[in-house]
Amino acid sequence: MAAHVCVGRRLVWLLAAVVCLSCANGRLSGVEKQNLELHRHLKRVNKAAVKSIQSPDGDIIDCVHVSHQPAFDHPFLKNHTIQMRPAFHPEGLFDENKVASEKKSKPHVQLWHQNGRCPENTIPIRRTKKDDILRASSVKRYGKKKHKSIPHPLSIDPDLLNESGHQHAIAYVEGDKYYGAKATINVWEPKIQQSNEFSLSQLWILGGSFGEDLNSIEAGWQVSPDLYGDNNTRLFTYWTSDAYQATGCYNLLCSGFIQINSEVAMGASIYPISNFQSSQYDISILIWKDPKEGNWWMQFGNDYVLGYWPAFLFSYLADSASMIEWGGEVVNSEADGEHTSTQMGSGHFPEEGFGKASYFRNIQVVDESNNLKAPKGVGSFTEQSNCYDVQNGNNGDWGTYFYYGGPGKNNNCP
Ligand SMILES: *[C@@H]1O[C@H](CO)[C@@H](O)[C@H](O)[C@H]1NC(C)=O
Ligand SMILES: *[C@@H]1O[C@H](CO)[C@@H](O)[C@H](O)[C@H]1NC(C)=O
Ligand SMILES: *[C@@H]1O[C@H](CO)[C@@H](O)[C@H](O)[C@H]1NC(C)=O
C-alpha cells in the first residue's frame, strides 16, 4: 500500500524534489505515513453531517443521519433494521418526584444545546479532530482504554492493582444474574494533575471472567484531557468484549453502539455541574437488557433513550451480567510510592456528605423478570482509603446510595 502511494508521489517528487526525499528509497516517511493514516481515520469516523453545531467548549457537534452512523460500518450490521424504541422498559423505575426537596438537584442539559439542536432522524456526534488523535499513542489506540487498564478491583492480585496505577472507590454486587443497573450520580469537575491521567464516575455491567474475555458495558461522566483535549466533564460510554484488547471503544468512536436519540451527544460536555456547598446537579443512567430482542439499552435522565448495544457484540453479556459496579476511578501516574493530586468525584471525602462529597443514589439492578429493585449484599472496595474512600448508606429518599471520592495526595496519602 505504501509503495503504491509512493508511485503517485514520485511525479510530485520530480517536480519538487524537496517534497518527497524519502520516496527515493521507495517508502513514505514515518510522518507521511502517519498523516495518511490519520486522514483516512478521520474520514472513516466523521460521517457526513446534515448540520453542524459549534459548542461553546470548542467541540463541533455533527448531526448525522441516523442510518449513516458509525455503527453501520460493522460487517454484522450491514442489513440491520434500527430499533427506534426498546420492546420493554424495566418495571419499577424510581420516581424522582418522591425525593425530598432539600436534596433535590436540578435538571441539566449539554453545553452544545446553547447553540442549537439536531433535526429529527439525525443523531449528534462529537466530531473527532486531528489533535484528538495526535494525543493518542497511535491512530489505532485512539478512543480505546489502554491494554493494561483492567479497572476491576476484585479481579486481580492487589499488588498488581497498585502497580497498574488505577485506583477505585466503588460499590458492587455479584453472585447473581443481572439484566441491568441504574444510578443517579452528581456531576463534578475533578482536577487532573497530569494530562495522561483521568477521573471518572460510572457504572460497570460486567460479564464473564476477569481474564482475556471480560465483557463490559460502562457509562458515566469523565474528565480525560488525553481523550478530549480539555478538563471538561463529559458524558461517556465504553464497551468491550475482550477485556479492553481488540474490541470496543469510548462513545461512538468505533462501530457497535446504535444511537437513536437526537438530543444527547456521547462525549459532549455536561452542563451545569455541581458546586461545592451550593447547587447540586445529577444525571441518571439506566442500562438494561431488552428481554425480547436481547439488546442492551441505555437511557439518560428520565427522557432520553440513547440507543443500544446489539447482543451479538458480546459473549457473556449476550445472556446476562454476573457483576455490577458503581463508583469512581482515577489514574495515578506518579511512581515510587508518590501519589497524584488528581481528584475523584468532588475531590472531597465521603464523610463530608451532601453538597460537598460526590454520590451515587438510588442504585438499582434489573432482575430476571425485568424489574428494577434495590441491590442485595452491596459490597464496597477501595485500594487506599486515605486517598479515595467510599461509604455506603440506605434511606427512604435515596434508597441504596454511597458517597465516594477524595483529593488524592494529602497528608495521609503522600
Ligand atoms: C444483506 O442482505 C443481502 C440481500 O438480502 C444479502 O445478500 C447479504 O448476504 C446480507 N448481508 C448480511 C451481512 O447479512
Ligand atoms: C487542565 O488542568 C490542568 C491542571 O489542573 C492544567 O495544567 C491544564 O492546562 C488544563 N488543560 C486545559 C486544556 O485547560
Ligand atoms: C496499595 O499501596 C498502598 C501504599 O503502598 C498500601 O497502603 C495499600 O495497602 C495497597 N493496597 C492494596 C490493596 O494492596
Give structural notes.
The protein has helices at residues 2-15, 30-45, 130-134, 158-164, 225-228, and strands at residues 51-54, 60-65, 109-110, 122-126, 166-178, 180-186, 199-207, 215-223, 234-240, 249-250, 258-259, 270-271, 282-289, 296-300, 304-309, 321-331, 358-366, 372-373, 379-382, 389-395, 399-405. The chain has 414 residues and is mainly β. The strands form four sheets. Strands 6, 11, 13, 14, 15, 17, 18, 20 and 21 form a nine-stranded antiparallel sheet that branches. Strands 10-9-8-7-16-5-19 form a seven-stranded antiparallel sheet, with helices on one face. The chain has a three-stranded antiparallel sheet with strand order 1-2-4, with no helix packed on it. One 2-acetamido-2-deoxy-beta-D-glucopyranose binds at residues 78-79.
List the helices and strands and how they pair.
Elements: H1 2-15, H2 30-45, E1 51-54, E2 60-65, E3 109-110, E4 122-126, H3 130-134, H4 158-164, E5 166-178, E6 180-186, E7 199-207, E8 215-223, H5 225-228, E9 234-240, E10 249-250, E11 258-259, E12 270-271, E13 282-289, E14 296-300, E15 304-309, E16 321-331, E17 358-366, E18 372-373, E19 379-382, E20 389-395, E21 399-405
Antiparallel strand pairs: 1-2, 2-4, 3-12, 5-16, 5-19, 6-13, 6-17, 7-8, 7-16, 8-9, 9-10, 11-15, 13-14, 14-15, 17-18, 17-21, 20-21
The structure holds 2-acetamido-2-deoxy-beta-D-glucopyranose (NAG) (3 copies).
